[in-house]
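Narrative of activities, Objective 1.

The group set out to show that a structural description can be obtained from nothing but a protein's sequence at a throughput compatible with the screening campaign. Below is one input-output pair from the validation batch, recorded exactly as produced.
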Amino acid sequence: MLFTDVSAERAVRAFGKAGCKIVTRGKHIGMSDGTHHITIPNHKRLNPYTLKAIITDFHTDKIPLNYETAHGRKMSFRLSSHGIAVS
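Output recorded for this entry:
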């Protein structure tokens, strides 16, 4: 199974910079900017496909998330007008 080095807290900080506020906290963290609502699993390491889905659900190009995989590979997710860019 793939995991990133992005924790739920790091994702919450990134979405917070884009204007989201924490609405609920428990096994999952619910965030909202008033228009969009997202749910982030409260885990130490997020699956990259889960992270990609959360970013897609939020629909913003304000959030670049850079991280290293468990194997040391550097990757980033960005939303652009053409979709999600993974590099």
